[in-house]
Specification:
Shape: globular
Radius of gyration: 19 Å
Helix content: 40-55%
Strand order of the largest sheet: 5-6-7-8-9-10
Number of helices: 11
Length: 269
Amino acid sequence: MKKIDGRSAIKPSQIDILEVLYKYRFGSRVLLARVLQINDSTLYKKLSVLIKHELVGSKLDNQSKIRGLPAAYFLTPKGLRFLASLPKHDYITEKVIKASYRDKSLKEPTITHHIDVFSAVVALKSRYPELKAYLRRDMSRFTYFPELPPDAFISMTIKDTTKRFFLDVVPAAQEKRPLFQRIAAYINFFDTGGWEATNTEPPKLLFIAETASVERMIRRIVKGVISHLEPDEELEVYTTTKKALHNMDSEALIWTALDDDELMTLVDI
């Protein structure tokens, strides 16, 4: 156990909470309990201790309460410094710690987006236990990701073949121009050899749309970007919806390619 103030000790199970919040940046109690496989009351007690020691903060304004949104938990700068002081945590940089000062003042859409990404990764990992997920803080440790990285980089190995994906979660309020620019940036990144340092095939792109209409918008924009930029190599893009992801059955047929309405699993992509 690591002492936080010379008297109180932070237990390994509480450090687990800090590590999950570091990875995902924001999380709800439901998601934290699911990842850590503990019940809600136990988690609440552990979070209360971490909040008391100012290692964890929470956000829930009056408008969020009215809409029934859950409290969002995040690491404070003090929490990040505590975690960075532990053995094998030297990857937590001063840059990340300084950036965290604005977490307490971030607006609801940004926080909701982080939680939606967290929820999407948890849903995928529950169906594919072998899946590995790297979030933006993880990706910041490496030089071979795009300057504006995806929401998550996921990979899984099936029969000695490793599949890699850039995953983005697209909200209903997504404006068309930023999405066009993001996809164009991916194409430029691959065309200029940004992924070549890994000596692996470029990741395929996955988009999880908040609604069916957003999914249709994504597909139109991707086709438009490809037509406009004419990438050197074929860009493989697959889409689904948030509803399809969270209602995934045992067959897990939820993904469709740009020019094909046939449903596919992640394994088949």
